[in-house]
Write a structure and sequence with these properties.
Elements (H helix, E strand, L loop, with lengths): L3 E7 L3 H4 L9 H4 L2 H13 L3 E7 L31 H8 L5 E6 L10 H7 L2 E9 L1 H15 L2 E10 L3 H13 L4 E3 L1
Parallel strand pairs: 1-2, 1-4, 2-3, 4-5, 5-6
The structure holds zinc ion.
The site of zinc ion has 5 residues, from loops.
Length: about 180
């Protein structure tokens, strides 16, 4: 079986992207939408994998470390956790295909507490393309895990966003220089 590639669309939900999301990055995140959809269509058409690792929280979870750090966000079965904009109908249309799936995650890294690494290895996926939000938190932590697990990571810089320009610059530089990620437009 030849090596496969996967597109990971990370946390592209209303709470992180929409103007009225509870933990929104706003315009920089919204600006990623056309490119993310273009990549999703491209990967789908090429018979590669499109995976949507999506933060999920329980209401008032006193044991979760993020409860002390951030306002409530991405609670299960809320509008805030729904995929933002055109990605929602895209996923609804394509989710029956076995190459496309949305997965819960409860930590920044898409690999922590999930079966992502097992599913990628089963499919002989060696290269991960990362898009979504935020560059300096969930995308960064997913890249750290991927680096430690030996994946080749490609960051699409026009399809990832941060809360601040400084954080965006730091995250891209760190992923490139310390984690060996390839940064592409
Ligand atoms: Zn969270």
């Amino acid at each position: 079986m030849s090596d496969k590639e996967a597109l990971l669309i990370i946390d592209y939900t209303n709470d992180f992207v929409a103007d009225d999301g509870t933990l929104t990055l706003g315009k920089p995140a919204q600006a990623c939408e056309p490119k993310i959809l273009e990549l999703a269509n491209q990967f789908y058409a090429a018979d590669q994998f499109v995976i949507l690792p999506t933060d999920v929280h329980r209401k008032g979870d006193q044991y979760h470390p993020e409860t002390k750090l951030f306002p409530p966000h991405n609670q299960r079965n809320t509008w805030g956790r729904e995929l933002f904009g055109e990605l929602k109908p895209w996923y609804q249309e394509h989710q029956k295909n076995e190459n496309v799936w949305l997965m819960d995650k409860t930590r920044y890294s898409s690999f922590v507490g999930t079966d992502l690494d097992l599913r990628l290895r089963e499919r002989n996926v060696k290269t991960l393309h990362l898009v979504g939000v935020s560059s300096d938190i969930c995308v960064l932590h997913t890249t750290i895990s991927a680096y430690n697990l030996g994946y080749h990571v490609i960051i699409h810089e026009n399809s990832v966003a941060s809360f601040t320009d400084a954080n965006q610059a730091f995250a891209l530089n760190h992923m490139k220089t310390a984690l060996g990620a390839e940064i592409v437009k």
